[in-house]
Amino acid sequence: MQPLLELKDLVVAYGELPILHQVNLKVQSGELVSVLGANGAGKTTLLQAISGLLRAKAGSVHFRDQDISKMRAHELPGLGLAHVPQGRGIFATLTVFENLLVGSWNPQARKKREENIAQVYELFPRLKERSRQLGGTLSGGEQQMLALGRALTQEPKLLMLDEPSLGLAPFLVDNLFKTLEKINKGGISILLVEQNVFHATELANRCYLLENGRVTLEGSKAVFEENPKIKKSYLGM
């Protein structure tokens, strides 16, 4: 079966400084795939390269059987690719409702704008309660809901998340990952970059370990949980 997303020998550099070294990665339709790794491993760069924010120096990115390596970032949401960046990236001076409207700007999503926003409110009732509140006045947990909700209004086939649990209280982290599981079971594939290894491996169909810009381990949840290196360095066992 042709992958929904496939990276082939992807190389990304900042100037002459290489960050990603011939990365190969796949996400099948319906999968939740986690990318694990320490700070500075290249995880954020990986997502930025996929979503067109950084240009690959070599290799390719294929999404839905199309080479998107040379496409611009604003062209990709219309294909079904949504990226929730680290730090959430909401519009602080717009209301919750206005943020959701911005998310549904592409022609494909615009056709079902009202339906999609209603579904976001059903998934996150707190956002409906605060629909007229400015994004910048929301709590950290509510801003993460808004960032996720805005991405969902884009009608994504693949949702990419960069450290969504960062800065959240433990009970909010638990709720976040339950929500991601629900979104995935609803048919949306997820590529998750996350340092919370316990949650990331628990949810994932497959995982990748990124170290110094290279994939050093790939496999199922069981492969990661049983690997001595993962146990020692990431699970504290």
Would you summarize the structure shown here?
The chain is an alpha/beta fold and 237 residues long.
Folded structure, characterized:
Helices cover about 35% and strands about 25% of the residues. It has a six-stranded mixed β-sheet, with helices on both faces. Strands 2-1-4-5 form a four-stranded antiparallel β-sheet, covered by helices on one side. By secondary structure, it is an alpha/beta fold. The protein starts with a strand and ends with a helix. It is built from ten helices and ten strands. The protein has helices at about 45-50, 95-105, 105-110, 115-125, 125-130, 140-150, 170-185, 195-205, 220-225, 230-235; strands at about 5-15, 15-25, 30-35, 60-65, 65, 80-85, 160, 190-195, 205-210, 215-220. Strand 9 and strand 10 form a beta hairpin. Helix 2 (about 95-105) packs parallel to helix 6. It has two domains: about 1-80 and about 155-235, Rossmann fold, CATH 3.40.50; about 90-155, no CATH class.
Oligomeric status of the shown chains? Answer: single chain
Largest sheet: 6 strands, mixed
* Distinct helical segment count: 10
Mean pLDDT across all amino acids: 91
**What number of structural domains do the residues give?**
2
List SSEs in N-to-C order.
Answer: EEEHEEEHHHHHEHEHEEHH
Q: What class, by secondary structure content?
A: alpha/beta
Briefly note the CATH topology name of the largest domain: Rossmann fold
Poorly predicted regions are none
Give the total of beta strands.
10
Tell me the CATH superfamily of the largest domain.
P-loop containing nucleotide triphosphate hydrolases
So what's the overall shape? globular
Question: Main sheet: which strands, in order across?
Answer: 6-7-8-3-9-10
